Recover the amino acids of this structure.
């Protein structure tokens, strides 16, 4: 546990030294003034916590300070930590951990978000925990996406079911389900098309893939994980809204969290979209998933 905690802490060095570090300096001691509230609000917004989440946070903190729970800025810092943790909450266990013959995870997200790498990390994560994992290259619109998944599958030592570029993603999923059953795999992780989330056709393709999963595997997909790039800040929040409208997203993986000086979008996702952040990407190797 200590090793994992240190790894997460090290990966968030940029965030800690930037805006959240400035918040710690602001709340390092002294009296709470109106300027304190204004500066705190500005720093939270700059840290990508988002306006809506920031306003809600500051209102709750003002209320608690008014009740005497924060007599100085050090008290306020502790209250802020508690409120931020409260936003993340304690989500229920992932459905993927429930016993069944075949669990199917759909992974969605735009190109460049870190989706392919995240799929490989998830495969390694669950393989290390005794699962028999198979991958499906459902992003057939980009030949590079298929090739990338095959390369990452080799690195993770996990088989990849793939068709030719521009093949029907539903057909890929159908074959991957059959392959999972014949090879006695108990976890199938499916890549999906990652063109821009504003494209109507992409969302229609996602719905089709979703439909194939529902028809072929009982209660599938059991998880639909959305990969978001932490470095894109509030744009990631906009993407999440679009994907949530198209498919039943069950959780979020925040990739590249080690590469941003902000990182507050994690709280905005939890608060504004009511989606649990299931994993964070903490680096570029297969083990950098927490």
């Amino acid at each position: 546990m200590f090793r994992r905690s240190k790894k997460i802490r090290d990966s968030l060095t940029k965030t800690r030294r930037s805006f959240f570090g400035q918040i710690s300096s602001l709340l390092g001691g002294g009296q709470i003034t109106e300027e304190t509230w204004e500066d705190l609000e500005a720093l939270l917004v700059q840290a990508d916590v988002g306006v809506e989440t920031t306003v809600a946070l500051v209102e709750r903190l003002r209320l608690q300070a008014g009740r005497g729970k924060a007599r100085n800025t050090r008290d306020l810092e502790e209250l802020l930590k508690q409120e931020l943790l409260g936003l993340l909450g304690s989500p229920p266990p992932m459905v993927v951990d429930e016993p069944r013959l075949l669990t199917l995870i759909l992974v969605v997200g735009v190109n460049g978000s870190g989706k392919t790498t995240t799929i490989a990390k998830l495969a390694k994560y669950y393989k290390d925990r005794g699962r028999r994992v198979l991958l499906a290259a459902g992003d057939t619109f980009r030949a590079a996406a298929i090739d990338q998944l095959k390369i990452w599958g080799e690195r993770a030592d996990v088989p990849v079911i793939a068709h030719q570029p521009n093949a029907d993603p539903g057909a890929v999923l159908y074959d991957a389900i059959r392959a999972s059953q014949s090879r006695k795999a108990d976890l199938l992780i499916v890549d999906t098309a990652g063109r821009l989330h504003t494209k109507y056709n992409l969302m229609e393709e996602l719905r089709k893939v979703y439909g194939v999963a529902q028809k072929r595997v009982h209660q599938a997909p059991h998880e639909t994980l959305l990969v978001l790039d932490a470095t894109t800040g509030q744009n990631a929040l906009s993407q999440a809204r679009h994907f949530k409208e198209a498919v039943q997203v069950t959780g979020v993986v925040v990739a590249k969290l080690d590469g941003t000086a902000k990182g507050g979008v994690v709280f905005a996702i939890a608060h504004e979209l009511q989606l649990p952040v299931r994993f964070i990407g903490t680096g570029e190797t297969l083990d950098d998933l927490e």
The mean pLDDT is 89. Strands lie at 103-108, 133-137, 160-161, 187-191, 223-229, 251-255, 277-280. The longest helix spans residues 200-216. The chain has twelve helices and seven strands.
